[in-house]
Amino acid sequence: MSVKRDSLSLSFAVGVYGAAFGAASVAAHFTVLQTCAISLLTFSGASQFAAVGVIGSGGGAFSAIATGALLGTRNGLYGVRMAPLLKVRGLKRILAAQLTIDESTGVALAQDNEKDSRTGFWWTGFGVFIFWNIFTLIGALSAGLLKDPAAYGLDALVPAAFVGLVWPRLKGKKSYFLAAIAFIFALSLAPFVPAGIPIIATSILAVIVGWRA
Amino acid sequence: MSIYWITALGTSAAAFIFKYLGHSVPESWLAHPRMQRINLLIPVALLSALVAIQAFTDKTKIVVDHRMAGVGFAVAAFMAKLPFPVAVFGAAIVSAIVYRVS
Predict the structure, then answer these.
(1) pLDDT of residue A8
(2) Distance from the CA of A170 to the CA of which of A31, A90, B12, B48 falls in 20 to 30 A?
(3) A179 chain-B contacts, CB cut-off 8 A
(4) Is A51 in CB contact (< 8 Å) with chain B?
């Protein structure tokens, strides 16, 4: 019982971020319809913020998709963990895949038996999906009413959201070192290569830093 | 099709492919510790680069403007363990104030 309650309260808390995405996406000149389509179909916060962020800073569609895709690779890793637990096929597997995100996996893995894990996965997955999409629409509609996004701080909303997304991932010397060199590397490339490329290029740094234990 | 629709649908397709592949490949494929480490570090690199680019560039120029105040607030808020919406919308308010007075 408490698994369901925990799942729903977490879902609501996470879903509220959807408003920030909706606002950021509209500020990057996506329409309300496109913004809602991204939340429904991509349904992975970091990838969504990244894709609209790259477009908003003048990058091309390829850079935006590549950055979003690279940030989506971790969901694949979550899927590998969840599949033996959920044991689903066909249409249900498609649904399970779409709902495989940080939060649904996190709640599932925090339970101490398989039944609660499955309940946690589905309730959190559906819960975040519903609230994330509702709040995306609210954020997109509200931002659409504003003429000069910078006057309302919407241009600071996206980098602030990225700070919040990277924050819980900074654990141990290696990750702090990587964060610092990625930050510097991206800024030093920015004047010389097309927008979007400096971001994707930092994935090479992750490979180098992660190569040795 | 506009760059916006291509980005929306392309990102969605890519995101779904990774999600679905995860549910379909044998567990052993990604079991290598090196793969696990790199997979955990990729978001750290990309998100840090995104903070840098989104806060300190305009097109391809490096700039320091009102956004830095907002991001500075966000960093302080996360250090103080404030909730995500408070930090992010607070950052927007701080940035907006600096933009309007400067």
Answers:
(1) 87
(2) B12
(3) 44-45, 48
(4) yes
Give chain B positions within 8 Å (CB) of A73.
18, 39, 42
Partners of A206 on chain B (C-beta within 8 Å) are 38, 41-42, 44-46
pLDDT in tens, chain A (213 residues): 588 988 888 898 888 889 999 999 999 999 999 999 999 999 999 999 999 999 998 999 999 999 999 999 889 988 988 998 999 999 999 999 999 998 899 889 888 899 999 999 999 999 999 999 999 999 999 998 877 878 888 889 889 988 998 998 999 999 999 999 999 999 999 999 888 889 989 999 999 999 987
How far is A93 from A83, CA to CA, in rounded Å? 9
Does the beta-carbon distance from B44 to A169 stay under 8 Å? yes
A106 is in which domain, residue-wise? 2-156
Burial zone of A113 (CB within 10 Å; 0-12 exposed, 13-18 middle, 19+ buried): exposed
Domain shared by A149 and A76, yes or no: yes
Task: State how far the Cα of A188 lies from the Cα of A17, in Å rounded to an integer.
Answer: 31
State the virtual CA torsion across A204, B15, A60, B88 in degrees, nearest 10: -90
* A165 occurs within a structural domain: no
Residue pointed to by tokens 């480490």: B37
Count how many domains chain A has: 2
A79 and A53 in a single domain? The answer is: yes
ipTM score of the complex?
0.88
Q: Is residue A110 part of a domain?
A: yes
* Same domain membership, residue A62 and residue A35: yes
| Residues A125, A181 share a domain | no
